[in-house]
Amino acid sequence: MKKLILASAISSLTIAGGAQAAEISISCGAVGAELELCQEGVAAWEEKTGHTVNIVSTPNSSTERLALYQQLLASGADDIDVFQIDVVWPGILGSHFIDLSQYTDGAEDAHFDAIVENNSKDGSLLAMPWFTDAGVLYYRTDLLEKYGKDVPETWEELTETARMIQDAEREAGNSRMWGFVWQGKAYEGLTCDAIEWVASYNGGTIVEPDGTISINNPNAVKAIETAASWVGTISPQGVLNYAEEDARGVFQSGNAVFMRNWPYAWALGNSDDSPVKGNIGVVALPKGGENGSNAGALGGWQLAVSKYSDNAEIAADLVMYLTSYEEQKRRAIKGSYNPTIEALYEDEEVLAAVPFFGSLYDTFANGTPRPSTVTGEKYNQVSNAFYNAVHQVLSGREDADDAMSSLERDLNRLARGGRW
Ligand code: GLC
Fold first, then answer.
1. DSSP string, 362-411
2. Quick one: which of 77, 104, 236, 278 has the fewest CB in 10 Å?
3. Domains of the chain (ranges plus CATH)?
4. Mean pLDDT, 10 residues at a time, over the chain (420 residues)?
5. Is the CB of 408 under 6 A from ligand 1?
6. Ligand 1 centroid, distance to 64 Cα (angstroms)
7. Contacts of 255 (CB under 8 A, 6+ apart)
8. 289 Cα to the center of ligand 1, angstroms
């Protein structure tokens, strides 16, 4: 196995049955333990098939990864055969991928319907679900116990508890303690955090499934104002430049009471060298006030085969291997990556390794989708406009009312009269 090489070629080796051994490439994410898990899965498939795979590691930021893929695919480059794509990209990149249904033998039927549907267009299956994601709330069980605090159910409770424990811990000598860390950098991750705040205050999902632009409403404004009030109080100013791994770094080193993150942070937070091992609880993200809702953004990654691949059938075989029951089970147990195969949520070994896959099943099955299906090819522009507007408010440059009304105007222009 070779890493970080942008090349795909057919080698002259012969494998069992006299077939030619191929050399293909896959792009894998590298957030947390992602790359290592990808390498292990790929190595097992190489062993099984005799083919060789180059692993191309990609930028951690989903926004940057999309830009890289768009560049490669627009030029029709055959450098990468298998693309790891975000759940919000089928509408943006789908035209560059083959229909996988000819290779699946119906395997997609075991995966969550909503994700399969998300990855399909005009009867073509453009990507196989690999892992799903939903935003969740991490908390320090030891600190809540020490201060006799309940797990917060609303953002208001979280704000109060975070503040109280942060202040008390600082007084006791831990000057680096913060109440709440999350993703505040201007990138796709902020779209996820902010859609959670907005949806939790019943403020909609930016653009509704029927195409209506809903973001300029008082509940959304309240949600974003609430988040802005955390910056510099319970969250460090630096949160404005945090992505997933920055938040995990602070929480895992023991310097935060609460963290918003994806499930992958569980396995790493409980690893042997983690200072907070055994002291982590995971629950649904809080509601926006008593009448709000629990909302966790729906994330997740799929595997797609490029139309420009010279080895599409072999690449599809790798996709089917990596998305299989056994491989998803291994990734769930070792890395707390959420399976997309429903039956794995009843697998005892999976539930023993990641108990909240059971207790938060509804959060994973009913994540809050970003408006990527309705906005299609324009989703990236919608998300860009949204996270930039939110970032302006979080950094105190604009008030939430003004930012949401100018965002509405920008989205209207983009939607060309609501037709998207
Ligand atoms: C996670 C999610 C993905 C999302 C990204 C944002 O990787 O799975 O859907 O776009 O975070 O940072």
1. HHHHT-B--THHHHGGGHHHHHHHHHHHHHHHHTTSS-HHHHHHHHHHHH
2. 278
3. 10-133+299-358 (3.40.190.10)
4. 44 64 96 97 98 96 97 95 98 98 98 97 97 98 98 98 98 97 98 98 97 98 98 98 98 98 98 98 97 98 98 98 98 98 98 98 96 97 98 98 98 88
5. no
6. 12
7. 174, 176, 177, 178
8. 26
